[in-house]
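Hello Y.,

Per our agreement to keep a running log of every chain we model this quarter, I'm adding this entry. I've kept the format consistent with earlier entries: sequence first, then predicted structure.
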Amino acid sequence: MRTEKLIPVTALLVGLLFYCFTSHDRPSALLSGDGSIAAISNKSAALPLDKIKLPPGFSITVYAEVAGARSMVMSPTGTLFVGTQGPGKVYAVKDTDGDHKADKKWIIASGLNNPNGVAVKNGALYVAEISKVTRFADIEKNLDNPGKGNIIYDKFPTEWPHGWKYIAFGPDGKLYVPVGAPFNIGMPTEKYASLFRMNDDGSGIEKFASGIRNTVGFTWHPTTHELWFTDNGRDLMGDDIPCDELNTATKAGMNFGFPYCHCGTIMDPEFGGTHSASEFIPPSIKLGAHVAALGLKFYTAGMFPERYKNQIFIAEHGSWNRTKKSGYRVSLVTMKNGKAAGYEAFATGWLDNETQKSWGRPVDVLVLEDGSMLISDDQAGVIYRIAYKG
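Predicted structure for the entry above:
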């Protein structure tokens, strides 16, 4: 046999071995017969988790490795679905042996346009890209071969700025989908700077709330079922204004001020005009300026101490345009008589305050049945588990 014919084969084998040992989704990690790959490798072992500061009794570990991990949703049967932005992929993750670390991971979809949002209803997975929402039926029966899904709605704007979406099903059974303003500041048309809702088949779309610059996280109060959401404040007004906001929508039709009014009191220098702050709904509490508050959840479980019950945890992705960076942490909003009463740090350490460099950026929060809490991180490419041992 002529040796030159062996060279391409040898090169192919070498290339395959290199990919197996370097790829985040390497095929060498394939598990028995179900199309999954290992959810944790040695890669995350190098993360400086010892730098994370938590209240006494709390601990943090890596739950799964997911490149670009953003929004999360857990199915009733224990499959975690994770959206991304740049990677264009949606993942499924499972802890099959009950050791509080995921061991299996599937790529549900790839090549998508910023599939940040994920939601689950009646056994189906809903995935939101920039301009559309796709439904994958019977998803947990088809993790290894989910197909392309069915597009239920494809008429959202196509602009990338603030176009990525967090989605969730509300207590009314409807799917809530935001459309951010396609700029830092400007006069949005009716299809922007708003939160919409629709039926689970994509029909009956309607505007629920307006005046929202960019929400990338919302949830519902466990007893009142009121909608609570974060909203990112505009840029280029200074280091300390305007604030990011935590807002409450008690009914449909409320206007939260963008682009006219920020933080409930600050009129926009360009668009405030003759408007008054009293025309708009003020924030339930003012968050830090430029912290990029994203995912949030009420803590409804029993593992954490009683003081955390029905309080709000918020993932703060972190500033990019501040002299001294802010955010890069998980914060806690304390509640009193159903209203936001306090705002403090809960988990810090992803940002080095001296060098102003970060190694992680929290994105979303999810409370598990056992009472622990998951935090996604799109910079470090992992999902953490925070637990309490009292």
